[in-house]
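#random but structural
TW: two for the price of one
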Amino acid sequence: MDIMIRGSKLEITEAMEAYAKEKLSKLEKYLDETEKAKATVLVKVRDYLNKVEVTIPLKSLILRAEVSNEDYYAAIDLVIDKLERQIRKNKTRIASNKKKELRDFAYNYIEELEDETQEEKVVKRKKIDLKPMSEEEAILQMELLGHSFYLYKDAETNQPTVVYRRKDGDYGVIES
């Protein structure tokens, strides 16, 4: 697995990098395509907290977790635990997706840099490539990312569609 570690307003030491790589290597046992997997680790410092964000885009899903802690090393341990729980929790869904051979779709999330001329209310902007998928796959992606909604292209209608988590715990779908 290729691992890229960045620090935002923080210099990453060799010890910090070695620790993160050692812990992330434990996730390789869950991944089929370890040579192709690229993990991105972003470490931010805000006040006294270290915020660690880990993103691992795979062919059919994206593993993502973030944790804040006063200690960097504890934050790394917690984020790895969180990623392992995500993988175990969704193991059957991921396995069924493999059987459907939907691994051909790659989800490329590209963050655009903020332009200084943008309004101050826009905090972050993302550009995504919508790939055809079923509602079940979209719900899996939404849960793995930890978001309350997910935009995707419906495999049957080929139209942009949003799946979202309702207050009662069920899911809703908005079609165009």
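TW: number two ↓
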Amino acid sequence: MTVKQQWMIVLGIVVVLLGGAFTASHFLKDELTSVTVGSDAPGFAAKTLAQPAAMKSLSNYRGEVVLLNIWATWCIPCRVEMPSMDSLHQALGPKGLKVVAVSVDNAGQEQAIRDFVQEYKLGFEVLHDESGSIQGIYRTTGVPETFVIDRKGVIRRKSIGAEDWNSEGNRKLMSMLLDEPRP
């Protein structure tokens, strides 16, 4: 085998590897990116509960501090934490905090979600992602999972399971983020 043939084999292998890497990154891009503290919050789309329903996405909250909660009506820990989220919203919503709870209940469960909102007297925005795609986008392991997103769209905190969102520590974090300048 000549030197030229050896280099052609090496070049062929490099081309195959680069092609494989490009293909993998194209088809597996969601699986290759992580959703962790310090990463940019990925976009999502979910419907409002209003009639007629409208679509909302993370871009609707650009420049805002967002507490993004992924939940379901059948989730007992979700029921535990909702009152503390509402208390946090009452305290810091007037200062600009956006609490957005995205239900991943199945299609056709809009009335159950509305009933839940009414039962708990929730004053923050509740959306419905009937496909549950937000769970894949945010790589959740269950419900509830909550992401605190700063004004630049960066995840500053991730919480798995029920939490007291109106605790002193969480209020301090939200207040600190609300004090940051708008981008």
